[in-house]
Amino acid sequence: MSGALSGKTALVTGGGRGIGRAISERLGRDGARVAVHYGRDERAAKETVAAIEAAGGHAFAVRAELGVPGDAETLWAAFDEQAEGVDILVNNAGTNKAVDGTLQRIGEVTTEDFDHLFAVNTKAPFFIVQQGLGRLRDGGRIINVSTGLTRGAAKPELIAYAMTKGAVDVFTSTLAKDLGPRGITVNAVAPGAVDTEMNAGWLRGEANTEARQRVGAISPLGRVADPTDVGDVVAFLASDDSRWVTGQWIDATGGALL
């Protein structure tokens, strides 16, 4: 498939579901060969690979659980088995939940919860980038997925999660300065609430109609975001059209912070 990213290789962490799947499929449609990373959901990753290939693109799955010792090494070893070098690295994988799967305010967060969130959302991207620099070609792209929670949309039940993404924001701007001489741009995309499987429990179905209307009303555009709304922003940052944009925090909340 020819397109703006023809001849490029992309790695999308958490690329099999939700926003990650939308990113993977869009990059695939733009011509990139996409490494769809997953931690546990092999079925979703393979479905995403199949969808990209059915649309005429090229993709392969890469497994590595993040947030555990040796995660970056495992990821790159799996990647190296199927590709040589990378042009676009999207740090999308993340979690906003504690170890027990709940959202927690400060009084409920344990040290285990705190360490888990930072291990997946902050430490993993840091070392994935660190160990990927030798594989990342000059003129490449690094795109980190942040959140609108770091710029004014504070939610007490997501305090530790927001802190992990605040660190990612600093990582983004500092890394942009460090890698600029190589022509590598580094940017962060910050979504708000998005209609994904992760949010299905409170955002989908008749029982959640009121919540969906309330969330949609936060945006001047009057609706809840679809994963493709974020994926298309990432595609711009992955393309040559964004060559003069680096170190930026891109608001992809649909104007929810206005």
TrEMBL record:
<protein>
    <submittedName>
        <fullName>SDR family oxidoreductase</fullName>
    </submittedName>
</protein>
<dbReference type="InterPro" id="IPR002347">
    <property type="entry name" value="SDR_fam"/>
</dbReference>
<comment type="similarity">
    <text>Belongs to the short-chain dehydrogenases/reductases (SDR) family.</text>
</comment>
<dbReference type="InterPro" id="IPR036291">
    <property type="entry name" value="NAD(P)-bd_dom_sf"/>
</dbReference>
<keyword id="KW-0560">Oxidoreductase</keyword>
<dbReference type="Pfam" id="PF13561">
    <property type="entry name" value="adh_short_C2"/>
</dbReference>
